[in-house]
Amino acid sequence: MRLFLASVLIPLALMICAAAAELRAPAQVTAGKSFSLASTGNGKGMLYLTGPGQASKRSVMLGDEIQIRGDEVEHAGRYTAVICDSGNCAATHFFVRAAEPAKVSLLVHPSRVRVGQPNAISGVAFVFDKFRNLVLSPTQVDFKAIPKQGAAVAQTRATQNGVTWIRLTSATKEGPAKIGASLGKVSELRVVQQVASEACNLRIKPDWNGGKFFAETEPVRDCSGNAVSDGTVVSFTKVDASGKTTVDVPIKRGVARVQMPLKGNAKILVASGVVTGNELSVEGRQ
Amino acid sequence: MMRAALNVLVILALAGGAYFVSWPAVMADAGSPEVELNAENLGPRPIEELTEKSITRDYGHAWQTMAAALRENRSDLLDGYFTGIAKAILAEEIAEQKRSGVRVRYTDQGHKLEAIFYSPSGDAMQLRDRARLEVEIVDGDKVVHREDVTLNYLVLMTPGADRWLVRDLQTTAAEVRP
After folding, report:
1. CATH assignment of A2-97, given 3.90.950.10, 1.10.760.10, 2.60.40.10, 3.30.2010.30?
2. What value of ipTM does the predicted structure carry?
3. Per the omega criterion (within 30 degrees of 0), is the bond before B44 cis?
4. What global pTM score does this model have?
């Protein structure tokens, strides 16, 4: 009988001692907000707190509410609190979720785009709280595209998993366009430079100067009337009795100009990218 | 002759040792955890074959270097595969570990990744990870807590010069579905 009691009571007593300290946490906590863990037991114990950016320990009084400061739980994610008392440890877990949306981060691509390109500009917005946690609850983000000329375009999109995105067609007029994403009073702005598209109606004219022949384009513009950027290459091709010669010339101040030595009759052709222009027939001397 | 051969062997052994010691700072070795990637529901941009391989490889390396960094209290190991807020938080955690003597040890048992968002211009990818881990919390040499757990992570990766980097790594209470 004594043996039976000892074999039952001693392990029971040990179990009671082992389970003396317990810890309970709220299921979910907001980043940066202080809260308390409920503990059982008595005497002194050691609290361990681990989680994103956190790996601390401190002495606590068991049986009391254990205060966790807001600055110990600024990062969203899963935390583990462990309380140890005379070698026995008990653990609990809790999740910290992001605080209120406070910051929007905007990625816009490309930084330079040709005019009139459908869905050529993309904007991706990430919503963060003040501790830089991604806010996972759906949040409305206002996108706005403000061209240099013309009316602004606005669209509102809800985030999924903290992210939302938009695609935009570039304007028909060249110049900078501001792409913005805002969240209440907070906003982020990026600038996309819209540049002329391919040359359109490419035309050349002859120019004799000091007995030398020059071929020169009229001001090179795209089909929307935007001046094609300086530096864009225009190819001049001369076809005469000696054969075919091609010269590549960059546009300078809106036009491309090249001197071409002529002997006899020649045809001058012009092209820029896939666009071809008019053809000139010239004679060797004037 | 024998002595010269011995010298060569010693030099080779030292060079090899130095290479392996410096290895984790640059790239992870073949002991990366198992990573499976599902990109079937990815949008708006479809994933490229090479990107799929890179994400799988680099995410595995990121976990391997993270576990090593936390185990050895070496924030320099984070340079290879972490950037932005993810790197900052892990560096903060390592600094806390050094201060308190408490460490978190991960034994990685594999990841099931699901790619959920790939930006139109290809400069950011968001993924969900279902990670199987053994986690130990250690105070000095004493293990104060040990658990086998499956955790859900929301991951943001961005491309670096020659690899994808983890920019955000956040555990979520449950799978976050749109």
Report:
1. 2.60.40.10
2. 0.81
3. yes
4. 0.79
